[in-house]
Amino acid sequence: MRTLQSSMPPTGAKGRLDPACGTCRRKCRKCDRTRPNCLRCISKGLTCEGYPLSFKIYDGRATTRKRDRRAVQQHALEPAATASIEETSPTTSTHSNDVNSQGSPPARLQEAMRSIRNTGVDGAPVEADIEEVQHLLTYYETTICTVLPVPTANVPNPFSEYILPLAYRDTGLLNAVLGLTACHIATRDARPNGSMGIAAVQHRLAAIRSLSSLLLKEECFGLSDTEEEIALAIVLTLVLHDICDCGKSMHGAHLNGVAFLCSRIANSSRCQNPCKLFLVTALTWFDLLRGFSGAEKLAFPSDTRRFVAETAGIALNTLVGCPPDIFSIIGQTLSAGKKFWNGELNVEDFQTILDQLLPQLRTWDPSKGPYPSDDREWTILADAYRHAAILRIWRFPDTWVIPCSDERIRASVTAILDASAAIPWHSPYFKRLLFPLFVAGADTDSPHQQRYVSLCIDHIRESTGFTYESLYELLNKTWDDRSRSDGKLNVPWFEYTCSAHLERQHDYLFF
């Protein structure tokens, strides 16, 4: 088991605190002096400007030297927790080539392990057990990769086919994968402060540091195609870690940090490989999901969503279950909602846009497809997402006006619950009903419907191993306040995610 080491430099006569990073000095705030990048800056989604005087490099021994311009360039070119990256396409390699039938770790894993030992959290050397890492990777492939997507014949599992080969080539992504896996194991461990919980935090911090270095390199010199994939894969894995841990993404810093990168890929004239297409699709969906709770949180531009809807239909269905047409309409709804929230649209123009989108949803035929396979569950999922989109439109422009007792609200809530009843609980498609079920549960005042939603979510939680704590938190707050209301106005769940009276604004995500 690895041990967490202190990141604070020595103090006293023989040791003095190094100066704060450039960003913290400019903002006149306390810096934690974490090397090579300040974690305060990282946690706020800022670019750490680095340290002007000196820095430490750990390669089994500690050395100190003056940080000149060449050192800054070298730091950007060689992320502290990133192994060497090959320029061959990661989608051409498969995991079966990396691990033999006896399950012994591949050569790349051994190289990555040496890098983990030499560049641990805060740059300090850490102890790493290769058997533990191999156990986590096996768990990732056999469990995590199974519960995340909907398994479909002739469609590769993106988490094993794309993420895992990249993780063997880059230590930052490897740490992100290990952190997610350790977190998933820890959620099933009743013991507080267990070893997996500690490992999850350590690997996560190392992955964040590596991501910071990649983004710094992007800002200074640009990234190669493979490095772009690695950066996007780290962010996606960190977001999934947030979902597995508590369902809250702190300030949405990770998604905000790569919005520009996804937009650049979407606007590129080049044909994107399946790995990069999957990564952009997944991140764009999570941005849309957080925008569902508050349109002002939407960060990805409309051209990125258009790119996903036009080119990634099968990937979007396999990953989420939401058809591209419904995805596009939700995006248009939230984009207009953001403009209305920012004062760029008046209420009349906003209502006109909503009145144009609502008939498209009402007349949309789920049977038209196309879908990844002929399974009827795809059309049932599509109809559930269609009604979730209808419910969101009814909540604009004023989320308080229409009560849950309104027949328009009840019709869509009932349609979503009927869809969930049409898919067996043991079906792998059932877990993709989580988002529509939450929307229906948050928009009903019926106790028996609330109870049914809770039972369905409980089953999804048990089958996937994700706790969905924040989801239960939102539903329980909404139901409690609604039970105390007179029923004449709605009690919107958005008030618990994006209200002006909230002290801290987080992204609530579930998958």
Automatic annotation (TrEMBL):
<dbReference type="Pfam" id="PF11951">
    <property type="entry name" value="Fungal_trans_2"/>
</dbReference>
<dbReference type="Pfam" id="PF00172">
    <property type="entry name" value="Zn_clus"/>
</dbReference>
<dbReference type="GO" id="GO:0045944">
    <property type="term" value="P:positive regulation of transcription by RNA polymerase II"/>
</dbReference>
<dbReference type="InterPro" id="IPR021858">
    <property type="entry name" value="Fun_TF"/>
</dbReference>
<feature type="domain" description="Zn(2)-C6 fungal-type">
    <location>
        <begin position="20"/>
        <end position="48"/>
    </location>
</feature>
<dbReference type="GO" id="GO:0000981">
    <property type="term" value="F:DNA-binding transcription factor activity, RNA polymerase II-specific"/>
</dbReference>
<dbReference type="InterPro" id="IPR001138">
    <property type="entry name" value="Zn2Cys6_DnaBD"/>
</dbReference>
<dbReference type="GO" id="GO:0000976">
    <property type="term" value="F:transcription cis-regulatory region binding"/>
</dbReference>
<keyword id="KW-0539">Nucleus</keyword>
<feature type="region of interest" description="Disordered">
    <location>
        <begin position="66"/>
        <end position="108"/>
    </location>
</feature>
<dbReference type="GO" id="GO:0005634">
    <property type="term" value="C:nucleus"/>
</dbReference>
<feature type="compositionally biased region" description="Polar residues">
    <location>
        <begin position="85"/>
        <end position="104"/>
    </location>
</feature>
<dbReference type="GO" id="GO:0008270">
    <property type="term" value="F:zinc ion binding"/>
</dbReference>
<dbReference type="InterPro" id="IPR036864">
    <property type="entry name" value="Zn2-C6_fun-type_DNA-bd_sf"/>
</dbReference>
<protein>
    <submittedName>
        <fullName>Fungal-specific transcription factor domain-containing protein</fullName>
    </submittedName>
</protein>
